Structure formats: structure tokens, C-alpha cells
Inverse folding.
């Protein structure tokens, strides 16, 4: 039933939420003849073995990468410089180096200079996730019907790009290609700024003296709760996103702040017309997202069920 | 199986998401011998009749209120002055006037002066909702396990307060009592500011020239999507919330903006330590909310199923 094996030897470095979900998909869909998992945390590798989501584990990233057709970095971007320097000399001619980072311009700037000619850099970003981290949080359904963005550097090898696209297509993702700079701008508004805002509102609530923490928690269903989910995302991964997509995030943040000042003024001066106009406009966008199949309740339920099952299995 | 009838005649004015959900609960749990539904929109009353979620409908709010033991206003707060003036003279001695508004100080300031002695004002706020509006969007499970906040004015009649509390307890809500001013502060941070921020980020995304609307929609799963849900909430209701809770919202917004400026500075100067410290702290709050049973995935699923069923039934 499965399509033919795509890779002889595939290495995933970093078995967190995304890396371990990819590992599960590689195993389930028979994408590689041999999948080797590498992580600097020995406890993570023990879990990978226990979960059976790779053919072998290897603590040393260079040894994991040796002889691999494809190496996927799935660690926070702050590790790329050191990890790239360790892995690059081990790569065989014709090998592909890819990643799953949420920023792409910085990734190319860090990794490209480390690679010998004949090694193909194909940066990719699966736009999917949950607020949970670690190898136990992963699940194979995470990628279904979500978008993968590939940002091929100028002059990238088309065959290598196609092979990376096919890997992710088999996990259920829809594929898009984009210039790295444009990717970073799109993600700054659709992902990075939302996370920053969510972290900030949760932090603000946590600091209040007039409202107790237990009140914030009790009445979270009024809207606050939606923000706490993404404000529970991995701190180190997100620190590295902001450090590596500074310009685009500051640009979007500037616009956000400017608009917020206008809203503040509308509230202060009781400008109901301005408030209602904005609140009406934003409603249409939600409808478009639902129509684009990116917020289907049935699908979300299936995804959440799978995430829950993963967590329950991990506790068992 | 049901507890004894609580009210002889109960009037709900405004059959939107909350009003119609309450009507459904009143009918299902036999809370009133007679439930009369009133709405200024005749199409809404037609739907109420078709759905069978009230014993009778009445276009004129004063006639609906006449002879009622309890009248519940479930309309945007901007209508309270006019509606209160129409309803108040029709209320019989001993009747209770309550509401479901998201702001409580302003509600007391508007309604209290309109009421004759012997009429009991018991403002209440069910902290529950979805992004959908109208009589078809309501469902009886909306209130289950959520908090109702009652803000009795000074000198409120305890029997009247108890009767309103019991009504909501029978819908499955948990009851809390609070001073109106404190309520407005708590809700400013847990509900009003989150909505304002969500409206603002969705509006900001809508205005971009460098990123297309279709890109924003496609990649919404990166975090943006969580904001669009609450930014799809009823525009008029939310306009009225901000106009009527100005001071508390501006206070919370000031703190939010101050903290956001600090984050902006941390990004500009690559202060990874500050970013990681905040992102780690916010993670704990999510955990507390989950532990407090206010974000239980199983429960959310049941609630969402019920909301979906309501929508599907409405389309049929």
C-alpha cells in the first residue's frame, strides 16, 4: 500500500514535537529504509527507543549524519551554527541537509557557508504544532492537511527540492515554495507576532496586584484561555525565533502597536463607530480561514484526539 | 427528575447566543412554568418559535416583562438604557430584573435609577460564549462547568440574589459573587483585553501590503488562527463592552503596552535571557488553567460537538 521507499538512510536530529512526529510518519509510511534519530539528550533517545519511532539512535550528530541521504535538523535555531559545523563535514556528496525551523533567512545564512559543493541545502518549515514539547508529544496526524513551506536558496538543486517536498507530501502536508525573506515576513504576522502577543498578555496578567492569579485562571474562558495555549509553547524554540527573525517581527510589531494606539484612542473618546467597523471587518477573516479548511472543527477534533492519545500513551 | 419549577413566568429579552442558550436550558430543565421570549427582530422570534425554545414570544419587551417574576436582559449593553426605561414601569412589585452583560458597573449605573422600590436588580454575567451569534448558535451545554458571576448592588435582596443564583446553577454553572467594580477589572484582563488584542492583530494582518490575505489565511495554523476565533465575536456586543468598561480596559491596556515595549526592546537588542524568562513563566499559567478544569480537552470537545450540532440543526 505504501509508496516506494524515498530514502536509504534518513537522519533526524532533535526528537521534540516536530522531530518525533516526523519520525513517526517516516516509520508509518515507510519513507526511509533506515531512520536514525539523534538528540543531545540521552533521555530523549531512550524514549525514542521505547516508542519505537526510529530504526536506530545515535548520540553523536556527525555519526548520525554520516552516509545519510537526508539529514533534517529539528532543534531550536540557536543550535544550528554548532550543529551545522558538526554535521557538515560528515555529509556525503549529494546528501541533502534540511530543517524544520520557523525562520528561514537566518537558517540559510547560518548553514549555507558550512556546506561543501555538492551538498544540497533545502530549508523547509512545516507550519504545524501544538503547545506540547518532547518526543512523547509527537503524533503522526500533526501534519495532515497543514502547509509545508520550502524556501530553496538561489540555485538550489531541483531534484533535491523535489525529494524533500515528496517526503512531506507523504506525511499529509500541502507544499508551497517561497523566497526565504518572504517566508519570514508571512510567518512574522501569522505566527511570530501572535506568539509574542500571547506571551505578553499572559505575562501582564501574571503581574497584576488588583486581580489574583486564581481569578485569572477561573475566568479564563472569557477569552484569555485561547492565548494561554500558545503562550505555553516551547520557550527556547521561541526565544530563537525572535532572535533570528528580528527585522520582520519588529516591522509587524510596529504596525500592531500603531493600530493598538488608535484603538486605545477610540475607547478613550467613546468612538463606537471606529470600534464596530474594525470588529466587523475582522469577522470576515475568520470565515475565510474556516472556508480554507484551516479551522475545520471535525479535523481539529481528530488532531486533538491524536495529541491526547499520544500524551496518554506517554503516561502509561 | 427535574427540580421544582423556580419561576412562574420568566422573560428573556434578546435571543442571541446567550439568551437562546439560556432559553434552551430553561425549557430543558423545567426552570419556569412559562418562558416568554422577546426580541426586537421579528425574524429572531420566528426562529425561537420554530426551535421551540420558549413557551411564547412577544415583540414588545414591556408586555413580555409584565407579570414576570424574573426578566433577564440578554442584549448588547448599549440597548440597556432604552430597554430598561421600557421594561421598568411594567415590572410587578417583587419582580427581579437581571442581565447577562459582560460589564457590571455600568449596568448598575444605567438600570438601578429606573427601578421602583421593591423591584430587585440582580446583575449577573455568565462567563461563557462562542464566536457565533444569534438564536441558532445557542446550545444548552454552553454553560456547563463555567463560572457565573453575580454582582449584587449594595443592599440587594438576598432572596432575589439566591433565586438568580439557583437559576444558573441549574444550567450547570458554578456561582461566584463579586463587587461590580472588581468584576469589571477581572474581566478587563481575562476577557476584554484579549478580545481587543485579537481584533487588533487580525485587523493589522488585514492591512498588510507585503503579505497577501490568502497567505494569512493559508498559514493561520501557525498561531494566528487562535486569535481569529475570538476576533469573530459579535461586533456590536463588543463595541458596547469597550464603551462601558473604559477605565478598566485602558488600565490593563496601559500595562500590556508597557510590557510589550520591553519585549520589543529585548528583541531589538537580542536579549535572549529576558525573552526566555518570560516564555518560561507563562507556560505555568496554562498548566494551572488546565488543572482548574477550564481547558479540559474532553469537555471542550463535548461543548464543540454541541455547538456544531446546533449549527447543523439550524441549517437543516
Amino acid at each position: 500500500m505504501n509508496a516506494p521507499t524515498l530514502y536509504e538512510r534518513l537522519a533526524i536530529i532533535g526528537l521534540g514535537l516536530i522531530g518525533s512526529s516526523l519520525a513517526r510518519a517516516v516509520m508509518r509510511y515507510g519513507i526511509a529504509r533506515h531512520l536514525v534519530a539523534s538528540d543531545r539528550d540521552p533521555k530523549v533517545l531512550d524514549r525514542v527507543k521505547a516508542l519505537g519511532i526510529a530504526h536506530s539512535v545515535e548520540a553523536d550528530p556527525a555519526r548520525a549524519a554520516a552516509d545519510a541521504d537526508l539529514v533534517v535538523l529539528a532543534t531550536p535555531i540557536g543550535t544550528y551554527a554548532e550543529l551545522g559545523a558538526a554535521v557538515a563535514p560528515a555529509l556525503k556528496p549529494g546528501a541533502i541537509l534540511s530543517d524544520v525551523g520557523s525562520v528561514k533567512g537566518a537558517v540559510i545564512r547560518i548553514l549555507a557557508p558550512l556546506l561543501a559543493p555538492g551538498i544540497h541545502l533545502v530549508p523547509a518549515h512545516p507550519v504545524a504544532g501544538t503547545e506540547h514539547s518532547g518526543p512523547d508529544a509527537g503524533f503522526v496526524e500533526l501534519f495532515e492537511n497543514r502547509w509545508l513551506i520550502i524556501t530553496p536558496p538561489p540555485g538550489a538543486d531541483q531534484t533535491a527540492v523535489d525529494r524533500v517536498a515528496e517526503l512531506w507530501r507523504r506525511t499529509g502536508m500541502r507544499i508551497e515554495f517561497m523566497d526565504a525573506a518572504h517566508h519570514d515576513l508571512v510567518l512574522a504576522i501569522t505566527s511570530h507576532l501572535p506568539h509574542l502577543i500571547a506571551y505578553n498578555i499572559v505575562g501582564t496578567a501574571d503581574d497584576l496586584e488588583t486581580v489574583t492569579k486564581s481569578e485569572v485562571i477561573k475566568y479564563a474562558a472569557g477569552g484569555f484561555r485561547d492565548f494561554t495555549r500558545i503562550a505555553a509553547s516551547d520557550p527556547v524554540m521561541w526565544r530563537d525565533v525572535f532572535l533570528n527573525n528580528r527585522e520582520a517581527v519588529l516591522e509587524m510589531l510596529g504596525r500592531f502597536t500603531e493600530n493598538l494606539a488608535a484603538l486605545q484612542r477610540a475607547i478613550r473618546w467613546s468612538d463606537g463607530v471606529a470600534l464596530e467597523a474594525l470588529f466587523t471587518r475582522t469577522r470576515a477573516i475568520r470565515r475565510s480561514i474556516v472556508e480554507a479548511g484551516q479551522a475545520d472543527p471535525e479535523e481539529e477534533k481528530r488532531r486533538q484526539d491524536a495529541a491526547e492519545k499520544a500524551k496518554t500513551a506517554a503516561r502509561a
User: Anything to note?
Assistant: Residues 7-178 of chain A form a domain with the Rossmann fold fold (CATH 3.40.50.720).
